[in-house]
From TrEMBL:
Catalytically driven reaction(s): N-[(R)-4-phosphopantothenoyl]-L-cysteine + H(+) = (R)-4'-phosphopantetheine + CO2; (R)-4'-phosphopantothenate + L-cysteine + CTP = N-[(R)-4-phosphopantothenoyl]-L-cysteine + CMP + diphosphate + H(+)
GO terms under biological process: coenzyme A biosynthetic process; pantothenate catabolic process
Domain Flavoprotein: 14-181
Organism: Pseudoxanthomonas indica
Region entry Phosphopantothenoylcysteine decarboxylase, spans: 1-201
Keyword set, alphabetical order: Decarboxylase, Flavoprotein, FMN, Ligase, Lyase, Magnesium, Metal-binding, Multifunctional enzyme
Protein's name according to its UniProt entry: Coenzyme A biosynthesis bifunctional protein CoaBC
Residue numbers binding CTP: D289, K299, P315, D316, I317, L318, F334, K348, K352
Similarity annotation: In the N-terminal section; belongs to the HFCD (homo-oligomeric flavin containing Cys decarboxylase) superfamily. In the C-terminal section; belongs to the PPC synthetase family.
InterPro entries the record matches: CoaB-like_sf (IPR035929), CoaBC (IPR005252), DNA/pantothenate-metab_flavo_C (IPR007085), Flavin_trans-like (IPR036551), Flavoprotein (IPR003382)
Top-rank taxon, per record: Bacteria
Keyword Ligase tagged: yes
């Protein structure tokens, strides 16, 4: 048995944080602290608008570095300071990235310090959008995001939820811990791995399924989909064509991934098989084992002290995939257990005739469903590998390393 350390550290990375002019700029203060906790050396550049929300002094106190705010700083620019700063950065993070800032970056403007830095650098760029949901959904903004993605810019978020103006929708800046985890995940895929899945198609299933009892109630589980989404993102970064079949979760679609949303186990089965042929299938979804025999059209009324539900087995998607012969090179399953994890995982590996199964214990503090981190063990015929506790984004990259290794074994 071999142990794999969690990859994706930001230790020693020189990170330039460019802060845009939106109310979410206050979150960038916490972001600086978390980036430094992750080991990064952080310098901050601010747009004029950002300075209306947060002072440069606040960022200087948290980063321990002078803050740049203008192209016209005579002291800093005596030696072309903006070019030096653009060269200094190992990675540039724009957070929050407003609709205006995204538009200027997309069109290659260099009319302030931040856009000039982004145009002058050869370092990877990440943007974390934040704006009103109508601005985010506007075709112009979506076109700008598409252009940035095509240029290799990493997009983190935005999240769906309450906004500053009292409305709700997609447009919230991702939380600082999510941004740091996504940056670490991107750092975990070295250039030598970037194209290793090019030309291959990967289908990933993620999240729960909901089995409707009536128009009000359903049978479901606590799967957040975070692990499956992280796996899909990692496969896409390695050059694969990725189809993500997602149960009902509130997560942003990873960059470069085709997403198919489903609700029930039957819908998930149809979408998974509809995505074939493929080279790799990774079944990270927590698919319901049982579904109501009949979903009634009207709300079930409370009529007695007990209620008996008539349930029937749902299709075993993972076993069906493993049994089909459409050219799959590798079939990977997941097992969430509360006890005897290794015993049950190895049993599923054999019974379903999988190439690999990834098992973790749920119902414990700091891991499993709903958590941003986990620990797990991968099993295959003749071997196993432990993955110690780490953010799910980092575990996903470590798992993809193993999948590539086993596929080539």
């Amino acid at each position: 048995m071999t142990a794999s350390p969690p990859p994706g550290s930001l230790q020693g990375q020189r990170l330039l944080l460019c802060v845009g002019g939106g109310i979410a700029a206050y979150k960038a203060l916490e972001l600086v602290r978390r980036l430094r906790d992750a080991g990064a050396v952080v310098q901050v550049a601010m747009t004029e608008g950002a300075q209306q929300f947060v002072t440069p002094l606040s960022f200087q106190a948290l980063s321990g570095q002078p803050v740049r705010t203008s192209l016209w700083d005579s002291a800093a620019e005596a030696a072309m300071g903006h070019i030096e700063l653009a060269r200094w950065a190992d990675r540039i993070l724009v957070a929050p990235a407003t609709a205006d800032l995204l538009a200027r970056l997309s069109h290659g403007f260099a009319n302030d310090l931040v856009t000039t830095l982004c145009l002058a650098t050869t370092a990877p760029i990440t943007v974390a959008p934040a704006m009103n949901h109508r601005m985010w959904l506007h075709p112009a903004t979506q076109a700008n995001i598409a252009t940035l993605r095509e240029r290799g810019v990493q997009i983190i978020g935005p999240e769906d939820g309450p906004l500053a103006e009292g409305e709700s929708g997609p447009g919230r800046l991702s939380e600082p811990e999510q941004i740091v985890a996504a940056l670490g995940s991107a750092a975990a895929v070295p250039p030598t791995h970037a194209g290793e899945l090019a030309g291959l198609k990967v289908v990933v299933s993620a999240g729960p399924t909901y089995e409707d009892l009536d128009p009000v109630r359903y049978l479901g589980n606590r799967s957040s989909g975070k692990m499956g989404f992280a796996v899909a993102a990692s496969a896409a970064r390695r050059g694969a064509e990725v189809v993500l079949v997602a149960g009902p979760v509130q997560l942003p679609t990873p960059s470069g991934v085709k997403r198919i949303d489903v609700r029930s186990a039957a819908q998930m089965r149809e979408a998974v098989f509809g995505a074939f042929p493929a080279d790799i299938y990774i079944g990270a979804a927590a698919v319901a084992d049982y579904s109501p025999r009949v979903s009634v059209q009207n709300k079930i009324k409370k009529t007695g002290e007990t209620l008996t539900l008539d349930l029937v087995r749902t299709p075993d998607i993972l076993a069906e995939v493993a049994a089909q012969t459409q050219g799959l090179k590798l079939v990977v399953g997941f097992a969430a257990e509360t006890e005897n994890v290794a015993h049950y995982a190895r049993g599923k590996l054999q019974a379903k005739r999988l190439d690999m199964i990834v098992a973790n214990q749920v119902g414990i503090a700091g891991g499993g469903f709903e958590s941003d981190q986990n620990a797990m063990t991968a099993y295959w015929n003749g071997g196993e590998r432990d993955f110690s506790t780490a953010p799910k984004t980092q575990l996903a990259d470590a798992l993809m390393d193993l999948i590539v290794e086993r596929m080539n074994a």
